[in-house]
Amino acid sequence: MSRALTVGVLAVQGAFAEHCAALRRVGAKAREIRGPRELDGIDALILPGGESTAQGRLMRELGLFEPISKMIADGLPVFGTCAGMILLAKNIENDERRHFAAMDITVRRNGYGRQLASFVTRGRFAQYEDVEMVFIRAPYITAAGPKVEILAETGGRAVAAREGRMLAAAFHPEMTRDLRVLEYFLSMARA
Ligand code: GLN
Fold first, then answer.
1. Which of 26, 35, 70, 171: disulfide with 133, CB 3.0–4.6 Å?
2. DSSP three-state, residue 18
3. pTM of the model
4. Ligand 1 contact, 15 CB (< 6 A)
């Protein structure tokens, strides 16, 4: 097998510890990112779930926003889950803010409502059947450009997508024992 990938996990807010634990379970090196110097030498980056407004503000305050934006533009493999998907989206239907605006998708924040908004379901993700998907005040994708491949749908709504080296999921793969979505991202990062 090839050398272990070093995967940065944005660690300013949200579910970063769970992503780091999942990365270690698949044999990757996880590095928590709280400042620009920690970005040096990473092979890929995960933007975890949490609260996209808070994450966007903290990244700007910590000097992370510009360098990450540039690294994504230069082709760094990136995986945004839930709030991370919102950070990647070019358009957010119900928010004035934009963050990296790198991926040609339109998302709806808190798409399932704010109260009864968390649920678990199972479905197909890319080539994998019966993947457990944990949704927590999740967004979903309402539109996608021609270069975007929709990888998962649930209840008729697109909930995961890929565009080049960018991957986005509305659900939280790090909160299940099923590591196939993470493995999909790592094989994308190795390619
Ligand atoms: N509702 C959050 C947001 O809009 C995302 C929720 C999550 O990441 N679990 O940023």
1. 171
2. helix
3. 0.96
4. no
Active site residue 82: yes
Q: Is the distance from the beta carbon of residue 137 to the nearest atom of ligand 1 less than 6 Å?
A: yes
Q: What digits encode the pLDDT tens for the residues 63-88?
A: 999 999 999 999 999 999 999 999 99
The active-site residue out of 20, 82, 99, 132 is 82
Is 172 one of the catalytic residues? yes
* Interacting residues of 124 by C-beta distance below 8 A, sequence separation 6+: 130, 131, 152, 153
User: pLDDT digit string (tens) for 107-162?
Assistant: 999 998 866 679 999 999 999 999 999 999 999 999 999 999 999 999 999 999 99
By CB neighbour count within 10 A (0-12 exposed, 13-18 middle, 19+ buried), where does 141 fall? buried
86 ligand 1 Cβ < 6 A: yes
